[in-house]
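Notebook entry, structure prediction.
Reason for the run: the old model in the group folder had no record of what sequence produced it. Starting over properly, with the input documented here first.
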Amino acid sequence: MSGPELTGGTFRDGWPVARRISDTRPQARIAVTGIITATQTVTIGGSPTCRCALTDGTGEICLLFLGRAEVPGLTAGRRCRVAGTAAASGGWLVVWNPRYRLEPPDGTGKICPQERRVPAGAGETAHLTSPVTR
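New structure, fully documented this time:
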């Protein structure tokens, strides 16, 4: 994948792009690299949805892949880069069907050893460990 949203540019189509999850606001473009800490298949609107929790050390965001029970390569402990538009859903940051690129492990060669389930939220919305308070 090419394009400014995955190459480190600070603007995409004239709009700023968040580079850290902690800088992300609802309805803002985001392009971050982090570790998948949890995956889960849920049903949203009658469709299977792969839900992944991504953390970059500054916060956590939920990636939702509508119509897919799983996404090959996106497993707990895997490092990846994602790009898309953030949204607030039930007080939590989410990105629907983001572009993603699998990344090699960081310089230490370690992958995240922790795997946890994304807790089920109220209704069909992903709820993670920190609400949107911005």
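Summary: Residues 38 and 117 are 5 Å apart (CA to CA).
The old model has been moved to the deprecated folder.
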